[in-house]
Amino acid sequence: MTDVLAALAQVAVLVFVLTSMIALGLSLTGRQVVAPLRDLRLVVFGLVTSFVVAPVAAWGIAALFGLSQDQTLGLLLLGVAAGAPFLPKLAQMAHGDVPYSVGLMVLLMVVTVGYVPLVLPLLVDGVAVDAWDIARPLLLLMLLPLALALAVRARYPDAARLAPALNTVSTTALALGIGVAVLVALPQIWDQVGTGVLLATLVLTAVCLAAGYLLGGTGREQRTVTALGTAQRNLSAALLIAGTSFADSPQVLVTVMVAALLLTASLLLVAAEAGRRAPSERGVRSR
């Protein structure tokens, strides 16, 4: 039964990734996605928060909470890997700058492919990471569908009418995937209670959100996206590395999996609350 539920969760997440990327490509133009990335200051701070602040925070928080070596490695893997398909969905929920979220997501994924194989061996002795292993799922499951959908939208503008239906499918698949994944991982989550991993993950999330919001742009919409983009780590890349480079240390994979679920659930709540507050904030400014 557990194997069936795990397979269901994987399929649901795959459906979410594909439908959300296609929906974004059909609802946006390439110019909208690229425009925010022309702001050099915005790009630099986005990279600094994701690839300097997040790894340093992960290392420091692991030390602060006295995590074991394997737990520290798991948290560090999340710290060094940035860029995730959840970011645009979080931006939509938070009423943030969605085109910027897509551009930032692509930028962080591309940098992650080169950054992780270069930096991780310097931080952890004896680990080797293949850049192509990280790049392949990102290219095939995210960037390629997004690029094809953008091309279709450019050629057939009416295709944008399909985006709302695809967004509904992606939201449903995301809820199903996370719900089933939490159900499957309940024993591992329970085992981590009292070890400091859960609290360390929440603190890391809060630090990344704060750093991203303080440094990420000039308006609420951009700051919100940078905050969510800094906190939402590249879970697929972290899980891939944990399962391959640290196969002889299963606690690393368990830490990444549990922390990833808690981080994602936390950010969904944060994005929903930000979205709930956004209309009243706009109303105050318009008076």
Count of distinct strands: 0
Mean pLDDT: 86
Helix share bin: over 70%
Distance between the termini: 56 Å
Overall shape: it is globular
List low-pLDDT spans. 281-287
Query: Could you tell me the strand content as a percent range?
Result: under 5%
- The number of helices is 12
Could you provide a short overview of the structure?
The chain has 287 residues and is an all-alpha fold. It has helices spanning 2-27, 30-34, 40-64, 69-80, 86-93, 98-123, 131-155, 163-192, 197-215, 220-231, 235-244, 250-286.
Characterization of this structure:
The chain contains 12 helices and no strands. It is 82% helix and 0% strand. It is mainly alpha-helical and 287 residues long. Helix 1 runs antiparallel to helix 8 (163-192), helix 5 crosses helix 6 and helix 5 (86-93) runs antiparallel to helix 10. It has helices spanning 2-27, 30-34, 40-64, 69-80, 86-93, 98-123, 131-155, 163-192, 197-215, 220-231, 235-244, 250-286. The longest helix has 37 residues, at 250-286.
